[in-house]
Amino acid sequence: xxxxxxxxxxxxxxxxxxxxxxxxxxxxxxxxxxxxxxxxxxxxxxxxxxxxxxxxxxxxxxxxxxxxxxxxxxxxxxxxxxxxxxxxxxxxxxxxxxxxxxxxxxxxxxxxxxxxxxxxxxxxxxxxxxxxxxxxxxxxxxxxxxxxxxxxxxxx
Amino acid sequence: xxxxxxxxxxxxxxxxxxxxxxxxxxxxxxxxxxxxxxxxxxxxxxxxxxxxxxxxxxxxxxxxxxxxxxxxxxxxxxxxxxxxxxxxxxxxxxxxxxxxxxxxxxxxxxxxxxxxxxxxxxxxxxxxxxxxxxxxxxxxxxxxxxxxxxxxxxxxxxxxxxxxxxxxxxxxxxxxxxxxxxxxxxxxxxxxxxxxxxxxxxxxxxxxxxxxxxxxxxxxxxxxxxxxxxxxxxxxxxxxxxxxxxxxxxxxxxxxxxxxxxxxxxxxxxxxxxxxxxxxxxxxxxxxxxxxxxxxxxxxxxxxxxxxxxxxxxxxxxxxxxxxxxxxxxxxxxxxxxxxxxxxxxxxxxxxxxxxxxxxxxxxxxxxxxxxxxxxxxxxxxxxxxxxxxxxxxxxxxxxxxxxxxxxxxxxxxxxxxxxxxxxxxxxxxxxxxxxxxxxxxxxxxxxxxxxxxxxxxxxxxxxxxxxxxxxxxxxxxxxxxxxxxxxxxxxxxxxxxxx
Lengths: 156, 500
What we know:
The complex is a heterodimer of chains A (156) and B (500).
Chain A: H1 9-31, H2 45-68, H3 79-102, H4 104-118, H5 124-145
Helix pairs in contact in A: 1-2, 3-4, 4-5
Chain B: H1 2-12, H2 15-33, H3 39-50, H4 55-80, H5 92-100, H6 104-137, H7 142-160, H8 164-179, E1 181-182, E2 189-190, H9 204-222, H10 243-265, H11 271-285, H12 297-321, H13 327-339, H14 347-350, H15 352-383, H16 388-405, H17 410-428, H18 433-456, H19 463-466, H20 468-499
Antiparallel strand pairs in B: 1-2
């Protein structure tokens, strides 16, 4: 499996530790404004406990990562790995954005075809056939057999 | 108990239940055989269907996927030298050498028979141990339950990844995600920021789909499907070992099965650990240890009976205590919650029919797995030829439909995609997904029990340490954390010495 963005996990570990600290502080601060109870946890008690745990774990992770040092750490973006992931995610988000209007049957073959291309499948005709047939089979299976009604096209 | 078990068998042999169970076994074997897909993904892909089914049928089908995927992993381990699931990693040590000698069929046949033996032993243990453990668990106090949750989460967090703190961060993040939405104590909105979608919290099914399945698709597209299988024209013949051969590995299979159950009961472990342990033990007790690593049937039998032995073992803490034994049972726990069945000791009182249907189903599943497994071995080379660059996009579509289907909301697809990206980051940088899911599932239970314990003790937090059971769970959790830190420290010290 290729590296996502950096050659060394120290940078990502540090970023994750900072993220954990921020999440913990956020949970701790925001939960202090929640209703309290005379006996028991109230609404904010449990998130405060978790916030404290997150702060503690984030701090430990940060200390351990810093102890390893950052000398010779090279940040190299592996675009060959990032590009197809970003493209797949972007296409999937676009699909979600258009699904209510364009409907499942119109959009899904396009999504399937484009993700197959991103996976490096280069037999265009068979990719198109597989995309259409699979989408129709899933649509019929879910709509007619499982009675799960997938979004319909609003344009036609 | 016997009449309840007979009633369970009556449920299991109803045509609908039997067909769905068979479907579960077939799906589990196929998914398990495909490298990159595991039993947890097999279960997740079926989740859109389960909450439209009667609970007993749904759970028996998921048990079929669980057991089937354990065996399925061995097929690709033997034929491709790539384990379909982590549990089959030890199987390839002897399976692939046998396949290279032209005895791939015999290796798969041995795996199927040993899986059957391990599965039957684990089912017997499940039936005998689970009801007794649930009786003990009924005596638990709220403080004990809270500490049990902490123990279960710690075990899964500690054993899921290489870095203990990453596992614990993952578990704590899961607990935090569980707090989003309307709180179960006073009904106030927490961390919703006025977004009405978040009032009910993050929906479990899309989160599960995102963390385990969407992240796998994104991970594979990042590696351009290179993790996929490549099998060309292998034929599988002569599946059944001879009577003498079966006799030679039968004892090892029984031993592996028992070891598997014992390992499976411990929360946070699983098939991979038990298979390697059983392999090691089998090598020590075998009369032909020199054959291990060169195509030993005993080696295959030890691994496969052991990893199937963990199935029943892992179900014991999940059903009786609500704490899963491994990653797949973590996902199954999520499925139970989705169906509306509350795992724990009360399950044996309130839903005894479901519990005994699972027990009976586990028995029948082993027979189905043996029959389907031997049949599947013949078509496996063709199934394993399906290119990953066609399979993965189709799985992405099934994920999308699965996320949408729970409540017909496009928002749920969005949640699955966002958690897919989160899962991808976690996978790439060593943050295990199982503790996060377990945190989300067990979070509400932990909060309610801690609240109840504090109400009983009038805000005295020492109640967690004054009750013996609660104290024992907390001490065990602390001991496991310290042991893991010590082992990590020793490993890093050894590495630095090698580097010098």
